Amino acid sequence: MQQQYEGYKDLADSLKAASALLNLERKSQLHQDIITICNHLVNPSFRIAVFGPFNHGKSTLLNAMLGNRTLPIDLIPTTGASITVKYGSDVRTRIMLVDGTEVYRSGTEILQQFAILDGNRQMRKDVASVEVFCPHPFLETGVEFLDLPGTNDRDEQDNLVREQLLSADLVIQLLDARKLMTLGERENLRDWLLDRGIKTVIFAANFLNLLEPDEQKQVQNRLLFVAESFRAELPPGFSNLYRVDALPALRARLKGDVAAANSSGLAAFETALQNIVGILQPNRGSVRLPRVQAIASQIQLSLKAKIDPLALEIKSFDDKQNSKIEIKQKAANLIYKGFITSIEELSDWLALTNLITKYQADAAVALAENKFKDWQTNTLKKDLNQLKLAAAKWLYQAYEFFQEERPQDLLIPFPSEPQVILPPKPNNTDDLSEPGSIAVGGGIGWLLGGPVGAAVVGSISYLLNKNIQKQDEQSAKESYHQEIAKLCITATEDYFSSFSNRGLSILAEYERQAEKVICFEFSQEPGELSNKRESLQQLQNGFNRLLRELEKVKILSNHQPYKEIPKSTNINRKYSPQPERVRISPKKDPVIKQQEKTVKNSGTRLESVSPPPTPKAPPSPRKEEVEAKFRDWELNEEIARMKAEMRSPNASRQTSPSSQASKQQNSTQSNKAPSQPKSQTEKDKITRAYSILGLQAYASQAEVKQAYRTLVKKWHPDLFVNQPQLLKQAQEKMHLFNDAYTILTDK
User: Fold this and answer.
1) Which of 146, 322, 623, 741 is deepest in the core (most CB within 10 A)?
2) pLDDT at position 629, please?
């Protein structure tokens, strides 16, 4: 039993906590009901309330049952307070005032001062509770009686009665046989008892002795109808209707007249009452919990009325924020993907082996012709700038999109122009057209005016194409122009090695700095919304706690627990795309020449070298490369679309039905054929555009885009760079495709 009351205590605490969350007025009916039922849940006594309109003999009946004239009795409404009668060794009264003062007296005379209505039939405002202690065997079993003020007199008294009925385990509804079941009594029976889960009710008919015998029979039949129509929940075998003549019963008890007490119906009533209490008292929870269920249902509905609009408001805000964040995250990932692709292309281009393969032959010849600076500007720098711009454009898109840190310029300087020191001229100068001298600075162009110049250029091509390996000292002596060619090759190789190493190092740092640009900070949540989020969490926790406690005592609910709301994002956080690749290493390319020789300004003759493979004409781009370029174009298109979404004030995953309908309509329209042109010229132009793309007239926009994609991948000019005739044809076709696509998508 003790464990059961501990469970009820937890339930009472959850009810009170929920009440606090509702911020109910202290004088509101729901607040008063919650306090009453919570106190009653943990009350170990079994309480019996006597309830009915004024002058129905409630106090008289109680006095008769107690065998003493204990409670106030008069011909006008007298009980002005709720009087609790408890067991005590002697008769005494305790009155608690609102200010905390306790008035404790022997006997019950003090009730005349504190527990009856005043001359204006008003209850005293300063009385908090009234208790009477009485040495009665029935009370000693843990039973309490509750004498309530009469109803249908004053609203203040009705409110008190309605409140106190919740604290009664058994209600004795006293009826006046002379005016049986008035409209007010029927309303109270429904509103104060049935609708609040109070169904352990016994009807006691008073004043039946004042009626004529014929009238008594008619009233008895009506009483049976009233009793049978009320869905009382009493133990099986017990009636819920008894006749008790209260005043004759009291007089008989005071005189000790047992026969008269029996004829008044008091003895039978008391016997039934004691037996009913004996059955209900051990399991008081089955009596009290239906009242809890009725009140808990009101609390839950009131909590939901506060929770649901608040949750909807927060969800709407979160959906809009999440939608913006998702757009930004997608944009950041797309931009990062494009940036990394460009960085990888530049990194591959800067790899020493690739630089040597692509540029060494031309660089060595330019060096020999004393045109290295022009070659560096017109070829190497031009290619580098294109790759740098391709990478930088992504960072500027990120800055425009997120407005974080402004991008830094990617500066990759070129090394100093290669220096070449000519070897001593051989004794036999027959093959030289003019005297030899040392060439310093950027070239040896003075040699190329005659046969030696042509021989050096030819030797450069020959040495690179043959890929001569290191030969021992016994090999045939090389010609003078071959030695010069080797010097040019070696000088350019050192140049590219320095350029590659420094460029890769700068590129690695540039990629690290890009993280500060391709990122965004989550916007801080407004303080007002954070407060609402906290309030919502408290309300939901209170609701869920009440639901759990109801389940523990087997009270079913139609409500489901709330899921935990998302936590506040009111913190500064940044999102950066996670790298999915190994960073560029500033180290040298792993595939370099087997022996790196350094040429210093010492005049020392260069050892034989192992030049790299002969550079060949650049191969035609593979279809995969064209596909990659097409994807790059689509990335730009997708980012532009997301920018437009970010500017839209309605960027949210959750849209109203009307906006969804509008969106659906727009989507449907976008898949329809273009609008009908007005002039015949326009019609002819559109018809020709469909024909160029290989489509039926007025195909959908989706079909137009798909056809364009297919043709671009098939006829991209980059696929035919080494096939002049096909290249020209591809360029012409692409011009037609672009014009057709523009015409059809603009409509």
Assistant:
1) 146
2) 59
Which residue, among 159, 137, 133, 134, has the nearest Cα to 148 in the 3D structure?
159
Q: Which two tokens stand for residue 418?
A: 């290669």
Instruction: Extract the runs of DSSP E, i.e. beta strands, from 474-625.
Output: 520-521, 574-575
Q: Please report how many Cα atoms fall inside a 13 Å half-sphere around the Cα of residue 457, on the Cβ side.
A: 17
The pLDDT, as a whole number, for residue 138 is: 93
Query: Which of 375-389, 411-425, 556-570 is the least confident region?
Result: 556-570
Q: Tell me the HSE value of 311 on the side-chain side, using a 13 A CA sphere.
A: 15
> What's the CA gap between 287 and 357, in Å, rounded?
95
Which own/partner contact pairs does 675-680 have at CB distance under 8 Å and 24+ positions apart?
675/747, 677/747
The two beta strands, 241-243 and 201-206, are: parallel
Cβ–Cβ under 8 Å, residues 626 and 716: yes
Q: What is the pLDDT of residue 463?
A: 76
Residues in the chain, total: 747
Residue 588's pLDDT band, with cuts at 50, 70 and 90, is: very low
On the CB side of 159, CA atoms within 13 Å amount to: 10
Contacts of 601 (CB under 8 A, 6+ apart): 419, 421
Quote the CA–CA distance of 627 and 105 in Å, as a whole number.
Answer: 101
**Comparing C-alpha atoms, which of 385, 409, 198, 383 is closest to residue 293?**
198
User: 433, 446, 469: which is closest to 594 by C-alpha?
Assistant: 469
**Which burial class, exposed, middle or buried, applies to 467 when counting CB atoms under 10 A from its CB (0-12, 13-18, 19+)?**
exposed
Q: Which amino acid is residue 656, in one-letter code?
A: S
Residues 11-22 pLDDT 10s: 999 999 998 999
Cβ-proximal residues to 301 (8 Å cutoff; 6+ apart), any chain: none
Q: Are 592 and 517 in contact (CB under 8 A)?
A: no
Terminal alpha carbon distance of the chain: 82
CA-based nearest residue to 637, from 331, 324, 329: 331
CB-facing half-sphere around the CA of 590: CA atoms within 13 A? 2
**3-state DSSP assignment of residue 317:** helix
Mapping DSSP onto H, E and C, the string for 366-423 reads: HHHCCCHHHHHHHHHHHHHHHHHHHHHHHHHHHHHHHCCCCCCCCCCCCCCCCCCCCC
CB 50 within 8 A of CB 88: no
Give me the residues paired with residue 50 across strands: 147, 172
User: Which residue in the block uniquely carries the two structure tokens 């169904």?
Assistant: 199
The two beta strands, 574-575 and 241-243, are unpaired
Q: For tokens 């057709």, name the residue.
A: 740
Here the tokens at position 211 are: 């009626």
Q: Where are the beta strands (DSSP E) in 393-509?
A: none
Give the integer Cα–Cα distance in Å for 741 and 691: 11
Backbone angles phi, psi at 319, to 5 degrees: -65, -45
One-letter amino acid identity for 562?
Y
Sheet holding 92-97, edge to edge: 102-106, 92-97, 127-134, 83-87, 143-147, 46-51, 170-176, 201-206, 241-243
3-state DSSP helix/strand/coil percent for the chain, to nearest 5?
Answer: 55, 10, 35
Rounded to two decimals, the pTM is 0.60
Cα gap 363→489, rounded to integer Å? 8
Q: How far apart are CA 189 and CA 231, in angstroms?
A: 11
